[in-house]
């Protein structure tokens, strides 16, 4: 039951406008600083009205941070994370929900527990694996004595090595295997009626045909919601690219944006170019905002599952 009273309506609107101000005011200050000259940004008291230097500042920030290649790298990273997570999560949830085997629940809970282990928590072992993705197999061969046996018989030393540092594969793979998408798909697949599954069997549909022709078309809104979330997550990645990327050719926008923020080491004590840094912030912020706006309808449908 929704209670409607004048005081409650006023209080509700005060809370809403307070939340809106908390969200919008910082973005407005960034926009104002990005549209002013450096002297206006450093003026006391601060000027709170936009200036006329927005596009020159954006051009300077774009050139200074070399955003052309950084945006392409970030787009590859975000797209790879979206595609990889949608495919992997759909297949994992499909196996958990529609295949009756004893390990289905242990596998689900094993996947679910990884929600409590974000990349920041497991970043050291993840980096070790990225430095040599085949090191676990090398360890197994060493423990079984196969490496020593082959070396003794043939003189050949097995040394498995696959370095993922400074590569798109290394950027994308650790971000693909998380439990969020699997849990979202599982909850949707559980709502599929048994009659539909039985009807597909009677029509001669095998598991892959059932997945391709029935489940995937029904999961379009879920895919859109997951793709929206994962694109924003992938685009805003900072810590992982900062850790594994030392080649500027593979740099991403968020990391390069941090390099636009000046400090004593980069300016040598001169006044920092805050107007360029704010202009760069606007540039980096635009793609995820555009994706969320364009996908808003499917994003909401995917989360509340109104199409079921």
From TrEMBL:
Q: Lineage of this protein's species?
A: Bacteria, Pseudomonadati, Pseudomonadota, Alphaproteobacteria, Rhodobacterales
Domain ABC transmembrane type-1: where? 71-295
Which PANTHER family does the protein's record reference? Answer: ABC TRANSPORTER PERMEASE PROTEIN MG189-RELATED-RELATED, SN-GLYCEROL-3-PHOSPHATE TRANSPORT SYSTEM PERMEASE PROTEIN UGPE
Q: Report the record's Gene Ontology biological process terms.
A: transmembrane transport
Show the GO cellular component annotation of the record: plasma membrane
Looking at the keywords, is Transport present?
A: yes
Q: Which SUPFAM superfamilies match?
A: MetI-like
Primary localization class, coarse: membrane
- What does this gene product do? Part of the ABC transporter complex UgpBAEC involved in sn-glycerol-3-phosphate (G3P) import. Probably responsible for the translocation of the substrate across the membrane.
Entry keywords, A to Z: Cell inner membrane, Cell membrane, Membrane, Transmembrane, Transmembrane helix, Transport
- How is the protein disposed in the membrane? Multi-pass membrane protein
TM stretches of this protein = 7-31, 75-99, 106-124, 144-165, 214-235, 274-295
Q: Tell me what this protein is called.
A: sn-glycerol-3-phosphate transport system permease protein UgpE
Plastid found in the keyword field: no
Organism from which the protein derives: Pontivivens ytuae
Family per record: Belongs to the binding-protein-dependent transport system permease family.
